[in-house]
Amino acid sequence: MSFPTDEMDDIINDFIAESTEALDSLDQKFIELEKRPDDTTLLNDIFRSVHTVKGAAGFLGFQQMVEVTHVTEDVLNKLRKGEMKVNPVIMDAILQSIDLIKVLLRNIKDKSGKQEDIEPTKNLLKSILDGHAVPETKTILSGEQPSKKAPSRSAEILPAASQSVTQACAAGAKPSTAEPEAAKTQTKTDEAAHAKDQSIRVDIERLDSVMNLAGELVLSRNRLMRLGSRLSESDSNSELASQMNEAIAQLDLVTTDVQLAVMKMRMQPIAKVFNKFPRMVRDLARQNDKEIELKISGEETELDKTVIEEIGDPLVHLIRNAVDHGMETTEERVATGKPKCGTVSLSAYQEGRNIIVSVTDDGKGIDPVVIKRSAVEKGLLSQDEADRLSKKDVLALIFIPGFSTAKVVSNISGRGVGMDVVKTNISKINGAISIESEVGKGTSIIFRLPLTLAIIQALTVEANGEVYGIPLSTVIENIRVMAEDIKTVEGREVIHIRDRVFPVVRLGSLVSGDFSMRASDWKYIVIIGIGDRKFGLLVDRLHGQEEIVMKSMGEYLKGTEGIAGACITGDGNVILILDVAGLIETSKKLYAH
Amino acid sequence: MLDQNMKILVVDDFSTMRRIIKNILREIGYNNVDEADDGSTALEKLRGGNFDFVVTDWNMPNMPGIDLLKAIRHDDKLKHTPVLMVTAEAAKENVVTAVQAGVNNYIVKPFTATALKERIDLILEKINVQS
User: What pLDDT score does A532 carry?
Assistant: First the structure.
């Protein structure tokens, strides 16, 4: 085509965005299809998505994409016309091709010009089209004997087998839930189609700049409110002052609304993350020879875009853990009288200013005894210490780096990235993580996440006459101490608090290199925890708690160690916000000298 | 009636496709183009504005192109509007259905600007001969 280059680039970007959207929604539909293999509407829907992508790819000259979508479309066409029946083998092949299409899309996006080897996938689909040479495959879903690997599958398409798939899983789970849910999804898609007309795509940078301006507005309002109250203090009878305060009160209301409205613009439904899991659980379950149903609830819950982006990886890890380690094998489940089909539930809901996200499985649960033994063996704590821990504290041990109880490293999880990384990632977005588990009943991991990252609660402290803010989510407790409470062990300052030893970092010496302390002075230790690391920050005074809008330090001061940003407080002062993770690094360097 | 100001409605559920077709139309000199994302919105637009020509995709949710075509032909005000159907395959049964439903012509994706111009010219010529 001979469009202007700009226009062409734009079109290609559109194509990538739109196709990605279409393909992402497909994963969910395929899982539904496995439950209801005869649903023609669903099949038509899937067919149309692939068909549409093919059409546009043809115009844009993405030949590989056209070839793959073309043969996929042919298979889907036969399925929707009822000439073939959905079975796990066909499903795997289609899913493989969808994955390949996604890879091709990514290559287009990266402008890498990379070519993929599309022949294996194409041949696989073609062999299915020909109705013979269905490749040998393990079919855990083939009915009565899940443990016995069926030898090679014959050519015929397997309506009976696919029938039993649905029944096998439905027997364990309540079949009644499937239908209304499906209906719900349908209405949702309809609504979404309608809503499409009502929305526009906006560059995230533009939203951020509106967010910033709203932040400025909040600060000006705070300043005005203080001035207003000072004005009425100095002259309580002034007509002008009371009118002024009225106006400020109005401004206060509007500002709060503006802030909320802008925050909402950045919110996205958590479904964006949740949607990829049904497919993942399906694949993992097949690899593991397990039968697992994923139940999702609260996918409409909205979270800040940044938070959404950050929780994807931790959730992937948790779900893999649940399927790989948490869930028993089918035989074990049957032997213990549990339903054959295991359940992993993923849920999200709002609780006050937090969003709670949880991953729950009905698997074997975590045995505190095993955890204790493993922790002691690894030298993470002594037998004595271990014995004194409560059950909750024992379970929390799994968040310590280097802790993994998995006996066998499978290709799914247990590759060295453990729960500690999950915890650190969640801490990074000011979230908290907790765990509940019952042996034989299952495990639940719960995230408590902030609604937004733009506004944070901060503890304001003073050191060397300067005020600093510490994100409240990292603060564990504050303790008043005297100089002699701080001991020196091997050249490092530490403090004993209730039988635990914490390294001490003097905020004053970190920021100005000078921090003298007279023996009789009362000071404060702020115990800060990030991930599993805890330390005490020594400060002169505690000021209070404040809701702040954090600003970046700008180009010039960007990357200053230990400083996350700055904010303007209600009284108009600029204070620095400490970057707690950075402070730990800085203090390590300090002590290294 | 070979009028470059002819008002054209492009119907496709995939916005990239609408954009591509609009660009091709612009390339061959048609700038007065509006779009709709499925059959039912298209029908609303057609009833509301004076469109001279419709280019519609076949495979769309809610109301596919073939239903849109039938609805146009059954609407007294719209029934003479020329309709060009865009399909991915020239499957025979599809073409027959479309012709029976009164399509003016069809074009297979992907097409070039020249091919689209040819089809549009052909349709317009036929209409001129008839009138």
Answer: 62
For position A592, what pLDDT does the model report?
52
Fold that domain B8-124 belongs to in CATH? Rossmann fold (3.40.50)
Q: How far is CA A75 from CA A49, A93, A102, B68, in A?
A: 14, 10, 18, 27
Each residue of A518-546: pLDDT tens digit?
Answer: 555 788 999 987 756 788 888 888 988 87
Q: Give the residue from A355, A30, A53 showing the smallest Cα distance to A185.
A: A30
CB A315 within 8 A of CB A369: no
Q: Where are the domains of chain B?
A: 8-124
- Of chain B, the percentage scoring pLDDT greater than 70 comes to 95
pLDDT at residue A190 greater than cutoff 70: no
pLDDT at A508 over 60: yes
CA-CA distances (angstroms) from residue A179 to A36, A46, A249? 9, 19, 51
**CATH number of the domain encompassing residue A569:** 2.40.50.180
Side-chain half-sphere CA neighbours of A194 within 13 A: 6
Backbone angles phi, psi at B59, to 5 degrees: -90, 100
Residue type, A275: N
The three-class DSSP label of residue A329 is coil
Number of folded domains in chain A?
Answer: 4
- Indicate whether B9 pLDDT > 90: yes
Lowest-confidence pick of A123-127, A206-210, A571-575:
A571-575
pLDDT tens across A262-281, in order? 878 888 889 888 988 888 88
- What does chain B look like in DSSP terms, one character per residue? ---TT--EEEE-SSHHHHHHHHHHHHHTT---EEEESSHHHHHHHHHHS--SEEEEES--SSS-HHHHHHHHHTSTTTTTS-EEEEESS--HHHHHHHHHTT-SEEEESS--HHHHHHHHHHHHHHHHHH-
Inter-chain Cβ pairs, chain A and chain B, closer than 8 A: 60
Find chain B residues with C-beta within 8 A of A7's C-beta: 23
Give the β-pairing of A292-297 and A342-351: parallel
- Catalytic residues of A, which ones? 51, 73, 321
Mean local confidence (pLDDT), A474-486: 85
Residue A184 lies in a domain: no
- For the whole model, what pTM was predicted? 0.54
Hey, what are A428's tokens? 């990074």
User: What's A416's domain CATH number?
Assistant: 3.30.565.10
Q: What is the average per-residue pLDDT within A402-427?
A: 59
Dihedral, CA of residue B68, residue A43, residue A24 and residue B65, to nearest 10: -10
Residue B38 or A186, more confident: B38
B15-47 CB burial, b ≥16 within 10 A, e <16: bbbbbbbbbbbebeebeebbbbbbbbbbbebbe
Cα(A418)–Cα(A404) distance, integer angstroms = 7
> Which range among A232-246, A281-295, A410-424, A429-443 shows the weakest confidence by mean pLDDT?
A410-424
Chain A closest-CA separation from residue B74 CA (Å): 26
**Which domain does A347 fall in, by range?**
269-366+405-450
Distance from the B30 Cα atom to the nearest Cα atom in chain A, whole angstroms = 14
Please report the sign of the dihedral spanned by the C-alpha atoms of residue A50, residue A110, residue A197, residue A269.
Answer: positive
- Asked whether the predicted pLDDT for residue B45 surpasses 70, the reply is yes
Q: How many helices (H) and strands (E) does chain A have?
A: 20, 18
Are the CB atoms for A48 and A61 separated by under 8 Å? no
Of B15, B37, B88, the CB nearest to A54: B88
Residues 6+ away with beta carbon under 8 Å from A163? none
Please list every residue in chain A whose beta carbon sits closer than 8 Å to the beta carbon of residue B18.
none
Q: How far is A11 from chain B (nearest CA, A)?
A: 6
Question: Distance between CA A138 and CA A318 in Å, rounded?
Answer: 26
Inter-chain touch A193–B61, beta carbons under 8 Å? yes
- What per-residue confidence (pLDDT) applies to B82? 93
Helices A277-288 and A88-110 cross at an angle (nearest 10°) of 130
